[in-house]
Design goal:
Transcription Regulator spoIIAA; 5 helices; alpha/beta; 24% strand; 127 residues
Length: 127
């Protein structure tokens, strides 16, 4: 995790694992509280592997519930952009849809400029 001027950048590497993804997301939420960050770029372009449709659903539900708990604790709203490769993200963005339908402001994309636009940050800050 690397705090930047206007957002928190989290670089994720390795193989996809739902349990690790969930634990990592809780650490990201904690870091946002500690750093006062309200925008997160989750850079998953180095992640390999894939998740089943069921795992994508579980991820979306988990992330949204963790986010709602974050809000219920009095923390500010967050915007999350997940930047990854198409084979990892899923063309239909099912996990993103599940999370968004449950109130989480998130965007999954393969395009750094789209991620920057979603977060309202300088596109040049994403390398």
């Amino acid at each position: 995790m690397e705090p930047r001027a206007t957002y928190l950048c989290v670089v994720v590497t390795g193989g996809l694992d739902l349990a690790e993804l969930q634990a990592g997301f809780l650490r990201v939420l904690d870091a946002c509280v500690q750093l006062g960050a309200s925008k997160v770029l989750l850079d998953a372009r180095q992640v390999t592997g894939s998740m089943s449709l069921g795992e994508r659903y579980q991820w979306g539900v988990f992330a949204a519930e963790a986010y709602q708990a974050h809000l219920a604790a009095g923390n500010p709203a967050l915007r999350l952009a997940i930047l990854g490769r198409e084979e990892v993200l899923d063309r239909q963005r099912f996990g993103e849809s599940v999370a968004r339908n449950r109130g989480m402001e998130s965007k999954a994309t393969t395009d750094p400029a789209e991620a920057a636009l979603w977060l309202g940050i300088d596109p040049g800050s994403i390398s």
